[in-house]
Structures are given as structure tokens and as C-alpha cells.
């Protein structure tokens, strides 16, 4: 029995498939399967039922999974007792939304590399529902997403909030009255798709105000949404940090008479069965650095050059 065999078993047991587990360990599926077979031979018991469409844990596999996780953590703790926290190692895949990628993410990665040079960080930028599924499948180690997960396998911990502001192009406001009901009947609401966390925020605003958009146009990036708004295709909202430089340049105007959107709360989402020591350090660093109100660097630099 070796640590590599235990590691192969742990990832195969906690990922959606052997293929995902093999990818996480940078192995071929055949090598992963070989290590698990060797572990099963040393224990004298099958750990996976391979007769079904997808390999599933046997009773023995379920029984030993917590012990295997504990052994792997003990091995990591022993190594860190000598190398200390700077010796954290591993390949961490995680998901964030576009707003995070343009505010706190660059700083987070820079400091993580400085503190934990043995860690390899791989961010993926997506909308919340896609990240949530990837997290449950084991393709991601954590996500920072709007709201809390409804999935039993995922734990959510509060981690910051973002403010949003209603905006429209000056030309659109010149052509229509600013009243929300009238404007939303003439111009489409430009917003993120239903899988994004902002969808629930908009639903709450509609329920609270009784204002129902005549039609909607969805895009899955804030860059595209802001471009459509600047082009006067429709009316919509942007994160405050994203809107500020565009408002400053006169490309968009705020809609102060509209009822404000409530802040969007974010959470750190991790699988409940992930007790790795590295995740505790990652969580601590996130709690230190996550700030959705930071300037959007590329927009701010453009705004400064324009003035």
C-alpha cells in the first residue's frame, strides 16, 4: 500500500468519474485504474463496483474513504511540520465569475504564489451554475460564487458582496422617459443569463417593484453587457466597480430614480468531503483579500488615459 495508491483511490471516490480523477492527478486513466487495482489487491477487497455504467464505491470503499482522507492529511501535516506553510503543494483548480477576475483575483494569485510557491493555481472564469456543477463533479476544488449552493455535497461560507447600479446610454434616455416601467417597455433589459447569480437579484427587484421587462437580452460576460448598454441596445445594470469608470467617461448614465438593486452576496463554496489542509490556507487567504469593490483595472486605466 502506497500514498500514491491512496491518493488515486481518494480522487476516484470523490470525482464524478475515473477520467476526471485521472485528469486531476495528471495521470492516464489506465495508470489511475492500475493504482486502485493494486490497492484493492493489497486490501483483499474490491473498492469499486465496475459492473455498472459508472464505477461506484462498494461498502468497503465507503467505509475506508474517511480513513484514507485522514491518512493523506496526516502525510501532508508531517511534511508541513518540516517545511512549514510555505511548503504547501498541489494543483488547485477553482472557479470565479468575471467580476472577481477583474477585481481581487490578480492580487489573490500574486500573494498565493508568494506565500505558497509550491502551489499551482488554475482559475476558471464562468457563471455560477456551471461552476457549481464542476465543483460537485470534482473538476474544481472551490468556487467563489453569488448566493449559496442548494446541493447537499457543497458547503457555502459568506465571502463578500457586490453593489450594482442601473445604467443606460445617454441617447437611450434622450429618446425615452426615465421611468422604469415605460423605459423597460420600449427597450430590452440587458442582463446575465439565468445561471448567473444576478438572475435571483433581478427576480427579487421585479417582485419588489412590480416592474416587469417587456423583453430581455442576455449575455454571459459583463464586457458584452456593458458594450451593448453603451451602444444603447437596451437598459440594464452593472457592478458598481464596473460602472464607475464608464459613468465617469460619460458613456453611460445612472438611473437614480429607479429603485436600487439589493447587494449581491457571495460565498466560498467547497465540497463537504474535502478536508485537505491546503484548503484551510486557501480559505484564510480568500477571507483576507476578496473585495468586489476594487477598481476594474482595465477600465480604470482606460478612463485615466481618457482624462
Principal-axis shape equals elongated
Give the low-confidence spans: none
- Strand runs, count: 12
| SSE series | HHHEEHEHHEHEEEHHEHEHEHEEHH
Helix fraction by DSSP (H/I, runs of at least 4): 40-55%
What strand order characterises the main sheet? 4-3-5-12-6
* Assembly of the depicted chains: single chain
Number of helices: 14
Q: How would you describe this structure in keywords?
A:
elongated; 5-stranded mixed β-sheet; 307 residues; alpha/beta
Q: Could you explain the architecture of this structure?
A:
This protein is of the alpha/beta class. It contains 14 helices and twelve strands. The protein has a five-stranded mixed β-sheet, sandwiched between helices. Strands 9-8-10-7-11 form a five-stranded mixed β-sheet. Strands 1-2 form a two-stranded antiparallel ribbon. Helix 1 crosses helix 3. The longest helix is centred in the N-terminal third of the chain and has 25 residues, at 59-83. It is elongated, with a radius of gyration of 24 Å.
